[in-house]
Amino acid sequence: MNSLRRWWSLPVDYGWNVAYARSQQALRITRILIGIWCWIYTAAAVIGLAILGLGLGDGDPARWALWFTIVTTVPVGAAWLIRGWPSWRMSCAFVLYADIVLAAVLLTFESPSVALPLSALFTVVGSYVVGFHGPKLFTAHHLFAFVTVAALYASTMVKDPAQRLQTSLYLLMLILVMFSAPLICHTFLMLLRRDATGAFYDPLTGMQNRRGFDASIGNLQLRSMPEATVNVVVIDIDNFKAVNDRFGHQHGDVVIRLTASRILDVFPSPAVAVRLGGEEFAVACVDNPEAVKERSALLRTRLRDETDRSPLTASIGVAHAVVGTRNITDHVVDLLGWADEAMYQAKRLGGDRIAVSDESTRPTPIVDRS
Fold it and tell me: Of the candidates 341, 348, 335, which has an alpha carbon nearest to the alpha carbon of residue 369?
């Protein structure tokens, strides 16, 4: 029971799952395969309709279900092939759509004994859920599939009593294929994913580390137009060594965590925040450059809180550029370098200021000391 509760409460970050798949060059091929799967399902529906006949006779729900499948799966498959990866809500909607359409086709079969083994197709949808979603959607999908299988099993036992032994064999096979194996795979995958995320996050602050940042910046594509203004902000605490020397390393850790908390307050999700190392942080976001400069100024003010035991100042570098989302990762890496140069320019001028690097001023940043 404790293991079940632990599995149920495992945290799932859909955006991180998508970003990690993208960083491993697996997202595009997955999207193509899902689109092709939708069209294969269309082809199967066409074959089923050819067997039943093309007419939409009264009281013939099977034909209606097959026609609906054909009409809807063609554009859904095209959307997977042409458009970007869906948001979390759209992904959940896709799972709901696939489950309902499949159940409608199976439950309207004239012969439930034929439809019952075809319920194994729920495993295809379940594989997608295992890869990108967590225990709650996994459970909802499999409960829906179980109810559908139970209805088909009961209908077969009533309508075709001569096939009861074969039907029970089908049911045992479906339990193994649809429920037991996916549950084992999902549990181990969730545990491995939980441990793997530790390599992408900084244990002191909970922010992403540089590896996690590199994996996540591609996820900015989900939130932008074909072209977007990408901003990178680099923050470095001034005279951090003096803080450590005066108050000790334990207080230095407190300062690092406090800085991270204030950065996340000023630059909340969907901005991607990272601890680059030591006392240096960075943020990447798709936003208006002026709004980012204003938030950088707010962060500078928030860090210099006189009520703190050791009030901080920070040197902040900002860089932005209008980029296409197809190669956004490379642009963010360039912007990170330009923002880092701007940050060092602010530090050379005494710190506690913002230096801005944009396309018209590179390589010399504009420094704001106000």
Answer: 348
CA distance 185 to 121: 17
Nearest to 152 by CA among 109, 209, 215: 109
Task: Return d(Cα 39, Cα 312) in angstroms, integer.
Answer: 58
Number of residues assigned to the chain: 370
Neighbours of 145 (CB within 10 A): 24
DSSP string for residues in 126-151:
HHHHHHH--HHHHHHHHHHHHHHHHH
10-residue mean pLDDT profile of the chain (370 residues): values are: 66 70 76 94 87 61 87 94 87 95 89 85 90 88 93 88 84 84 76 71 84 75 63 92 82 88 88 90 91 93 78 90 72 89 92 82 57
Task: Report d(CA 320, CA 286) in Å as an integer.
Answer: 9
Task: Give the Cα separation of 170 and 137 in Å (integer).
Answer: 25
HSE-CB at 184 with a 13 A cutoff on CA atoms is 6
Amino acid at the residue 222 = L
pTM over 0.85, yes/no: no
